[in-house]
Design brief:
Layout lengths: L1 E5 L9 E3 L2 E3 L2 E6 L36 E4 L2 E6 L4 E8 L11 E12 L5 E8 L4 E4 L2 E4 L5 E10 L4 E4 L2 E4 L5 E11 L3 E10 L7 E11 L4 E10 L5 E10 L2 H8 L5 H12 L1 H4 L4 H14 L6
Parallel strand pairs: 5-8, 6-8, 7-9, 8-10, 8-11, 9-12, 10-13, 11-14, 12-15, 13-16, 14-16, 15-17, 16-18, 17-19
Antiparallel strand pairs: 1-4, 2-3
Helix pairs in contact: 1-2
Amino acid sequence: MYVLYYSEKTRGRRAIRRYDYFLVPIRKTERQPYDGFVYNFETASEPHSYLVKGFAVHNCTAPQRDENQLHAAVVELIALDDAYIKYSTVQNWYPGDAQGVGGIYNFVTKRGECRGRNAHISWTQVETGSAITWKYPSCVLRGAGSIGEFYSVATVNNHQQADTGTKMIHIGPDTRSTIISKGISAGHGQNAYRGLVKILPSAQGARNFTQCDSLLMGAKCGAHTFPYVEVKNPSATVEHEASTSKISEDQLFYCLARGISEEDAVNMIVSGFCKSVFKELPMEFAVEAQKLLGVSLEGAVG
């Protein structure tokens, strides 16, 4: 956060309003850390305005309680001509205890619109916490040549439930979308992927690739997939891949025979399963996400 100090003892100290902004004489600028709510983050549409490449980090916490709490957030992204927005989330809300008592209800609305030509929006999320998660980041690909991406890892253990996915709505010509979803289920956890790929008649030459993989770690967990595909333009190309697997005894035996503990072996296998999503995160987030994944799956095997 930058703190601007207003100059009161110089000539021309009066603030002047010009249309929808103000000209304010500044005495000095100081940079200070900020840990609070951020409601709006915008780059103006002026021809000479721009945002230097980088990223901002926003942190939310909540106390652990026996009763359930609600987290309901709204995120909206709008990308104009040649703009690129990458939004990354690592979610580790309190999931409740091993018997399913307490935990956060994480019901989040996330939507993005590629409004301009060659606009690009990329969603990346790692979900390891909360008792129940409902989250479906979307991209409306309106501009010609615009791109939407969705990379997700959702992990459930004990009595957690995660219902996550995305919506890619192709409106403009030559639009592209990529969906990579990884679901990991352990204990009594239930994991669901729910996605929509919609290609309208105006989306000439649109392309989509979807990959949805599930990993089961136990006999009482579940993985569910609900893909919806609507194609209304014959020139479109849509690809969908899906798989469900488990950590086999052969994989564990191979690692144990080489002196690797069972817990470390599980973490290695899970990290490899999620590699295609982790590489989309900033380095600091990727390291944290791998550690959180290991913590959330403690005791899942054996």
